[in-house]
Design brief:
With about 500 residues, the protein is an alpha/beta fold. The protein is about 50% helix and about 15% strand. The structure holds 5'-O-[(L-methionyl)-sulphamoyl]adenosine (MSP).
């Protein structure tokens, strides 16, 4: 089976922050999980380089938009490996192949009869690059995202006939009830559609030159959102030189996006694909905001928390874990250095790290590192169906719930240590067999949760599985009882303690 997952492409008007890292981490968990299942995976991320947000930022800095884009695209490109992201390609919308793809596809949309000339009159947010409808406006004339005064725009440009897709979009939502996930976001998107669709600007005229030229009207560039959305498709045409991956990887399985860009992905995007005669994606997965002091973190608001500081001090896996654990994926939630530290200490260092250290230390102490053989294992019923549940939850975009299902077993293993008290069993020669069973159960339980956690904590899982001499992290190996660890060494702490708060 093939599996395609994407992040939004990030605006290059500033530096990457935790909000961007969040979407990339979520997409990476899905990509890694599907590779574990043996799927043929394509994971795409990249940068959105045209349009007003970038042109305005460049103007402020006194550099050309291309120079600003080149500089910041590098920073986003470097962010992916720093996050442990296993993306298969990194697209830049200034790539000549992408630009040619945009021109070809939008020409097809026009040839199919879905483009016409019109005049736009209304509100516009240059930071969102979004034409706001009257009911999206805050306090009469402000942007609900940036809280800045919107500009009043009136210009002649090309329009995409979104209104022609009202019925087809409603049919799509009826036929594919999980097209948008989670369900609350689906309802939001459907309500927007049912509220009545208006045609939308497809190009910008004289006011903006930084974009992909409209092939049938060279004085215009395409409105940045249409250029940007098409990245998901054009990337497949040139990610591998000389090979067209569209047959293999289109339609995408999951586009993961933040709630601020729901309208573009859940409404414009499927309509645009229909207009171009292309299949629509299987799911749009919408997440909420990571909040600091109640506000969305964003470059323009300037209240960013630096993911790099956390990675440097605590390792990338702890950041991945924290953002998916502390905020239920799909909803909004506050993040803070204090909450990070709390999760790190109590869950990564204590629940999981200590479990691994204790189990390995006990096998070394009581059995000279040899794991008792035989399949007399306890806790089978606790692990029964777990891998299936985790996979099913990830398939519904429930990344936090899947992680909680695994963590419940981490806690179960810790309770089992206390219940069994191997240090007492070791003192009683008559209970030698029970000690064997307890140690074998703990080693197998530890191995199983580690395989299940591999998508979330890839570096830690690889290290631990290697130390257990059981590097197989395929989904078959995620079944309790599937492994055969024969020996363990004493392990160094997986998540060392830190004294001071993170920067
Ligand atoms: N360029 C557009 C996307 C085009 S996709 C065809 C864009 N870029 S962005 O850089 O502004 O945002 C990219 C993603 O980061 C969005 O999904 C957005 O929701 C996410 N986040 C930015 N700040 C965020 C938080 N504070 N919390 C969670 N995610 C947020 O939009």
């Amino acid at each position: 089976m093939s599996f395609t997952v994407t992040t939004p492409i990030y605006y290059v008007n500033g530096a990457p922050h935790l909000g961007h890292a969040y979407t990339t981490i979520a997409a990476d968990v899905m990509a890694r999980h599907h590779r574990q299942r043996g799927d043929d995976v394509f994971f795409l991320t990249g940068t959105d380089e045209h349009g007003e947000p970038v042109a305005l930022a460049a103007e402020k800095l006194g550099v050309t938009p291309q120079a600003l884009a080149d500089e910041n695209a590098e920073r986003f490109k470097a962010l992916a490996p720093q996050l442990g992201a296993s993306n298969d390609f990194f697209i830049r919308t200034t790539d000549p192949e992408h630009k040619a793809g945009v021109q070809r596809l939008l020409q097809a949309v026009k040839d199919n009869g879905y483009v016409e000339l019109g005049r736009y009159e209304g509100w516009y947010c240059p930071r969102c690059a979004d034409f706001k409808t009257e009911n999206e406006v805050e306090d009469g004339s402000k942007c609900p995202v940036h809280h800045i005064e919107l500009t009043r725009e009136s210009e002649e440009n090309w329009f995409f006939k979104l209104s022609a897709f009202q019925a087809r979009l409603e049919a799509l939502y009826a036929e594919q009830p999980d097209f948008v996930l989670p369900p609350a976001r689906r309802n939001e998107a459907l309500a927007f559609i049912e509220g009545g669709l208006q045609d939308v600007s497809l190009s910008r005229g004289a006011k903006l030159q930084w974009g992909v030229q409209v092939p049938w009207d060279p004085a215009h560039v395409f409105y940045v959102w249409f250029d940007a959305l098409l990245n998901y498709y054009t990337a497949l045409e040139y990610a591998v030189p000389g090979e067209d991956l569209t047959q293999r990887f289109w339609p995408a399985d999951f586009h993961i996006v933040g709630k601020d860009i729901l309208k573009f992905h859940c409404v414009f995007w499927p309509a645009l694909l229909m207009a171009a005669g292309l299949p629509v994606p299987r799911h749009i997965l919408v997440h909420g905001y990571l909040l600091m002091d109640g506000e969305k973190m964003s470059k323009s608001l300037g209240n960013v928390l630096d993911p790099f500081a956390i990675i440097e001090r605590f390792g990338v896996d702890s950041l991945r874990f924290y953002v998916l654990r502390d905020v239920a994926f799909g909803g909004d939630g506050s993040v803070s250095p204090a909450a990070f530290e709390q999760r790190y200490e109590t869950e990564l260092a204590n629940d999981f790290g200590n479990l691994a250290s204790r189990v390995s230390a006990m096998v070394v102490k009581y059995r000279d590192g040899a794991v008792p053989a035989g399949d007399a294992l306890e806790l089978r019923e606790d692990f029964d169906g777990l891998a299936g549940e985790v996979a099913a939850r990830i398939d519904r975009g429930e990344l936090t719930q899947a992680l909680e299902a695994i963590w419940a077993r981490v806690r179960r293993l810790n309770r089992y240590v206390e219940e069994q008290a191997p240090w007492k069993l070791a003192k009683d020669p008559a209970r030698r067999e029970q000690l064997d069973v307890a140690l074998a159960t703990l080693v197998e339980g530890l191995r199983t949760v580690t395989v299940l956690l591999a998508a979330y904590l890839p570096a830690t899982a690889a290290r631990l599985l290697a130390a257990l001499g059981a590097p197989d992290d395929s989904w078959a190996a995620a079944a309790f009882g599937a492994g055969a660890v024969t020996a363990v060494d004493r392990l160094a702490p997986l998540f060392p303690k830190h004294d001071a708060a993170p920067a």
